[in-house]
Amino acid sequence: MSPWDGSVPASRSRPRVGPTWTHPAGNPARSHADSHYLLTVDPQSDPGARVAAEPSVHARLEDALAEPDQVRVLHLTGDELRLPDVHIPPEIARLTHLEELHLEAFGEIMLPDALAGVTALRTLHLESVRGDVPSVVLRLHNLEELHVTFSEDGRVPPGIGALTRLTRLNVEGVDELPNEVADLPALAALTVSGRNLRSLPERLGEAVTLRHLDCSYTGLGSLPKAVCRLANLESLDISMTLIDELPLEIAALKRLRVLRFAKPFPHHGPESYATRVKQIRQPWGELKSLRTLDLSHQAIMSVSGNVRALTVLEELDLSYNEMDGLPEELFSLSSLQRVDLGFNRLRSLPAEIAGWNRLEELSLVDNPLDTLPVELLNAERLRTLDLRRVPFTVQEIEEIRARLPRTEVLCSNESAGP
Questions:
Q1: Secondary structure E strands in 6-139
Q2: Which of 86, 203, 240, 418 fits a 20 to 30 Å CA distance from 252?
Q3: C-alpha to C-alpha distance for 46 and 29, rounded to whole angstroms
Q4: What is the secondary structure of 47-62 as a DSSP string?
Q5: Handedness of CA 115, 119, 125, 131 (dihedral sign)
Q6: Residue 309 and residue 284: Cα distance in Å, rounded?
Q7: How far, in Å, CA of 240 to CA of 217, rounded?
Q8: 165-176 tens-digit pLDDT
């Protein structure tokens, strides 16, 4: 039997390792100052290994190299990587069954050329990196996911197009992306962030396989028209950017199902970074496939009537705005299941709320409501009603719960008066 007590991962994605760990033999938790690796046992190579929900074995790199055939997921962190230049030894190439590699460095990472011989490698995470992506990464031809977080002066190499099997690219802390990103023939999801990133590659519209684009927390001041040429795009996140208005060309995104357009609070950055939008008059009506729409944190006072065209919308977030009323057109969206109206100025809800006959979750947090309409109290599908920080008395909350026996009614002690 293998001495390692591990598990088979449910997916390739894994949470980051915490600061302390417990060895299965009962040894004291090791210090975060050491380099560690996370070992995932393959039950086919060791049928006697216990299968658990999460990996529980962490040891030094030399221990991993002692049984290289057992290693599937490897995390390296600690003081040995807190150097200006981090050299990963070529012996790592002995881990021929390695599928997922995480490196948390605090300097420029030097990966050995021999790593290109680890053909099983599918996922690579490089965190807190200074300088460029190591050139050997471009020769990891079986790589499917690449996640890079730059601490400063980061750059994605133009040769990124050589990773023909890459389906997910996540790059944080960059000022620009090369046009060659559009040459990735299997790219399905692209996440990019960086306050100084003010444009996207002109050729991005040629990425015909791209279905998910997240460019939140960037310095984009307008939505590049290249994005509007992504005919297969299903989700778009432009939250916490400088974008105030969407171009009419966005109507070409016929398959768009998720649009997140939240804005930053003024205290999240300089005042100039938080443009306060007072009304939303956008081409929503052309995005007829939308299932999720996030318009939170925009200081919206009203919503234009063309939202009535969103007949398949299931989730709507209008929280953290300045709405003191809801337009009648909003209640024609009969497919809505989850609605967040928290942190607005609503004093009442109209009887037309009955139009939301599929509603399952409703948040009214921190609204100065006086009462709730009978139509809401008769909602048969409602499972969660959030009334925290709403000025209802304890008695009123209990009456609401009595009317909605199948609904979880949330309230806070400070919201329920005597």
A1: 37-38, 58-59, 73-76, 85-87, 100-104, 108-110, 123-132
A2: 240
A3: 25
A4: TTSPP-SS---EE-HH
A5: positive
A6: 8
A7: 5
A8: 999 999 999 999
- Indicate if the pLDDT at residue 252 is higher than 60: yes
Kindly tell me if the per-residue pLDDT of 295 is higher than 50.
yes
**C-alpha distance from residue 165 to each of 142, 253, 290 (Å):** 6, 25, 29
Identify the residue with better confidence: 286 or 315. Answer: 315
The rounded distance, in Å, linking the Cα atoms of 74 and 377 is 52
Show Cβ contacts of residue 10 under 8 Å, excluding neighbours closer than 6 positions.
none
When pLDDT is averaged across residues 183-200 and rounded to a whole number, the result is: 95
pLDDT (tens digit per residue) in 350-390:
999 999 999 999 999 999 999 999 999 999 999 999 999 99
Q: Are the beta carbons of 275 and 242 closer than 8 angstroms?
A: yes
Q: What are phi and psi of 227, to 5 degrees?
A: -65, -35
Element (H, E) at 340: strand 338-340
> Do the strands 37-38 and 58-59 form a parallel or antiparallel pair, or are they unpaired?
antiparallel
Percentage of the chain beyond pLDDT 90 is 58
Q: Which of 224, 228, 225 is nearest to 198 (CA)?
A: 224
Residues 6+ apart with CB under 8 A from 15: none
Please give the torsion angle defined by the CA atoms of residues 39, 42, 48 and 49, in that order, rounded to the nearest 10 degrees. 30
DSSP letter assigned to residue 18: -
pLDDT confidence band for 270 (50 / 70 / 90): very low
Q: Where are the alpha helices (DSSP H) in 53-195?
A: 61-66
Give CA–CA dist 127/106, Å, rounded.
8
The predicted-structure confidence for 125-166, as pLDDT tens digits, reads as follows 998 888 788 899 999 999 999 999 988 767 788 899 999 999
396 contacts: CB under 8 Å, gap ≥ 6 = 416
Cα 294 to Cα 263: distance, rounded to the nearest angstrom: 10
| pLDDT of 281 | 59
The whole-angstrom separation of Cα 71 and Cα 59 is 12
Rounded CA separation 367/324 (Å)? 9
| Cβ atoms within 10 Å of 114's Cβ, excluding its own | 15
Q: Which amino acid, one-letter code, is at 310?
A: L
pLDDT of residue 79: 60
